[in-house]
Write a structure and sequence with these properties.
There is one protein chain. This protein is an alpha+beta fold. It folds into 3 domains: 2-133, Beta-Lactamase, CATH 3.30.450; 147-305, Alpha-Beta Plaits (2-Layer Sandwich), CATH 3.30.70.270; 321-569, Alpha-Beta Barrel (TIM Barrel), CATH 3.20.20.450. The chain contains 22 helices and 25 strands. The strands form 4 sheets. It has an 8-stranded antiparallel sheet with strand order 1-3-2-8-7-6-4-5. An 8-stranded mixed beta barrel has the order 16-17-19-20-21-22-23-24, surrounded by 4 helices. The chain has a 5-stranded mixed sheet with strand order 10-11-9-14-15, with helices on both faces. α5 crosses α9, α6 runs antiparallel to α7 and α9 (279-296) crosses α10. The longest helix is centred in the middle third of the chain and has 22 residues, at 309-330. 32% of the residues are buried.
Amino acid sequence: MNRLIKDEIDFDSINLIYQEILNAIDVPIIISNKQNLDLYIANNFALSFFPEDYLQNRVTQLNEVITIFDEASLELIKINKADNSNKDNLYFECNALLKILDKEPFPAEIKIHAMESSLEYSLFIFKDVSQDRHLLNRLQYHRNHDALTGLLKRDYFENAIQNVIQTHNIDVHPVLACHIKISHLKIINDQCGSVAGDELIRELTECIRILLKENEIFCRISGTEFGLIFVNSSIEEAQDKITDLLDQMLDFEFEWNDKPMPVSLNAGIYILKDKSENWMNVISFMDAACLSSQKESENSFKIFADDDNDVIAKHRQMGLVSTIIKALQNNRFQLFYQLIVPLKPSLPNTHIEILLRLRNDKGEIIPPNDFLPAAESYNLIFMIDKWVVKSTLKWLHQHPEILSKGIICNINLSGFSIGQRGFSEALKYSIRKYQIPPQQICFEITETVAIEDFNKASEFMNAMKSMGCKFALDDFGSGMSSFGYLKNLDADIMKIDGSLVKNIHRNKIDKVMVKSIHEIAHSMGLQTVAEYVENTDIVGCLKDIGVDYAQGFHFSKPQHIDNLVTELLN
């Protein structure tokens, strides 16, 4: 520590200790006279901000060497703000620009402390926060910007949608918002590595950027998706730009290590034209339109419209995602069943097919044709399948009288689930845990699943059949491309698709097709089940053909599984 001017005070040894303590503090500290702001003492850290020996042996006032400005207004802030005449005014703190002599100002945290122990002196403490601000700005930049493309992220895009709705005159001048999705990126990443995928994203970013006017909003909102808001273009101009971009993709070539790779884009468009719009709905509408566009063709776009059934269906599916998740969390799914009845006295075993129902927050039943496609589209079907299997096995364990009657329980599984690593082992564990005879469990998979991923389906079936479980091919005949694969699938039952069965009593072609499927199945040792059996005429036709089992409203309507005990007892 350095004495800046001589004083009549006689420093003793205790003062020397205080000096050492002050010099050990890594914050600049200056002690000045409160009245005239003469500098008395500065620790070494404070002196480092001044030229060497500048403050030695001279009378200097604090406000001659240090100036403080408000950061926003740049107005001068008086240094002698603290006042020990009033305890409430002993401290003054602020964030401001601090200028030392003629150096560049820097942002600082400033504290002025009027010393209670001495009426004459004040402590002036400051901290240069330039580096802190720089690091904070870098963190904020990386938090808000995508590292690969430099584009702003999803949060900014969502806020921009809200801002356009609130501040733009969209009632008079509508604004086009757009969601663009890259297809085939996973193929490129899998075959060529993520470096190739990153390069593709950078190239596509530039293709899009050159189409935009200044200040138009362009964000990367996920790994494969961009968001655009054409705030400075008319609707016609914006649509023309999107059309140009998609046309470019037809000739766009992306090669990696001399390997040409497929690339395409799809766009979902929403026109902002109503200030009462909900921004979350806008995001959802664009997503739905983009998904509908992908379904139709590559390098195409779709504009959300209230009368577009495909887009509305996609939007409804997206809205069901949170309902499905809540149902899994709060146990709102319910097991139902439908009987599968033998048509021959020689077949004593009745089957039941486990069906699934979902209740929403209001207690209303959502049909499976609504929520299951949503679950499949958004990869929730595996969780649902696991819930169904566990709940069914647990219920059977709690009702041994059902198993004692020889009932075979059919449980549907999705193609996604049977392809999951370790799923067959998990099923085996659950069957053993709940002490269910494996031969009374029959898993149903659709013919489409069996054909599309034949190897995985065959591997899964073999794993479960080694334990004793049975398998049924559901909806057989819906594709009529199955016979070549059938001989290689170790199934036990073939369920004939209801679209062929429901008119069998009045359509000769349907009857011939059902008979052909039944005869081929029997020649391979498979039993047959006819779906959609709704009247006695259909039952008569099926008996004539020799079909083994029937399922439909004629015999049993879907009911809550707890009703099964009463129905079998009666």
